[in-house]
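A quick aside before the break. I want you to see a complete sequence-to-structure record at least once, exactly as it would be stored in a machine-readable document. Don't worry about memorizing anything.
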Amino acid sequence: MPFASEGLKPLTSTRLRCNFDMRKICNHINVFIFTLYISICISCTCGSKLQYKDVKNDLDKSHAYLKERIKSSYSIPGSSGTKDEAVTRYLQELSKGKTWRNNPYIYSEDEFVNIFLPNSLGNNTMIDHNPLGPHMDMVLFRRSVGEDKIRSVIGGKDFQVLQISWSKNIRKRNALTGYKPYSVVVLVDGQKREIDEIKQVSEHQGKFKVSVIAP
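That is the input. The structure line, written in tokens, reads:
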């Protein structure tokens, strides 16, 4: 019995050392996996940016990038034949749950960067004073907030556009012409509601598409 008791001590000590070593190894492995995961996430995030990622934080390079994209003609899918139709189609898709990320009747992020902003440059707008990165962060944030407000009125509901009043201030900017809805009146649940988050509809070669949403 004494022999058995004495024999257990080195066996127990060995197991403790092994368990401690294994815990250290596991901790190192967990740290490695976590670090690898973060690296992959950062890499994926960077890779998902648009092609302007290399110039987005530099004002001069941002302007050079935009100037290269000033053209007389563009292909803009989802455009409508009239201003009113452009607004109505946009609102209909928004009420079905679509956002600016997948609504075909508002300028996509790519269209905004490569069509809208190049034609806005030099007109004393915010893009004249801000690099692409911070500017687009603000544009997309304001879009999301504006759409949330519109969605609170018509989201998931049947509605009818009763009237759209247009500002007389028409903005001619190179290949684009901007029209601002003064007010959009809709009928929802038997009540008239007003939507004022649609800030601009852009026209190009006789076709119209919602371009600016903000609260």
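Two observations worth writing down. The longest strand covers residues 159-166. The radius of gyration is 28 Å. We'll return to this after the break.
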